[in-house]
């Protein structure tokens, strides 16, 4: 089971979390552009966000 979150309608994988921050990753280019994400590895984009920026956290 993996942890995901929703931000501005995008479903993003939560790779890490600590206290109030989440490291999100995605391969969606539109999420990269609209959420101001940075490059990670192998065509993935990443960003650290605060919990207050997240609309929903869930597991699948």
Written overview of the protein:
The chain has 60 residues and is mainly β. The protein has one domain. It has one helix and six strands; from the N terminus they run E-E-E-H-E-E-E. A six-stranded antiparallel beta sheet has the order 4-5-3-2-1-6. A hairpin with a 5-residue loop joins strand 4 (38-39) and strand 5 (45-50). The longest helix has 6 residues, at 29-34. The radius of gyration is 10 Å and the shape is globular. The mean pLDDT is 95.
Main beta sheet strand tally, sense and closure: 6 strands, antiparallel
Low-confidence stretches: none
Number of helices: 1
- Tell me the Rg in angstroms: 10 Å
Note the run of SSEs as H and E.
Answer: EEEHEEE
Task: From the structure above, extract its key features.
single chain; 60 residues; mainly beta; 6-stranded antiparallel beta sheet; 10% helix
Topology:
Layout lengths: L2 E5 L2 E9 L2 E6 L2 H6 L3 E2 L5 E6 L5 E4 L1
Antiparallel strand pairs: 1-2, 1-6, 2-3, 3-5, 4-5
Short account of what is shown:
The chain is mainly beta and 60 residues long. Helices cover 10% and strands 53% of the residues. The longest helix is centred in the middle third of the chain and has 6 residues, at 29-34.
């Amino acid at each position: 089971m993996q942890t995901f979150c929703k931000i501005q309608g995008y479903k993003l994988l939560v790779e890490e979390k600590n206290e109030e921050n989440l490291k999100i990753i995605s391969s969606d280019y539109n999420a990269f552009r609209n959420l101001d994400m940075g490059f990670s590895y192998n065509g993935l984009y990443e960003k650290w966000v605060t919990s207050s920026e997240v609309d929903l956290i869930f597991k699948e």
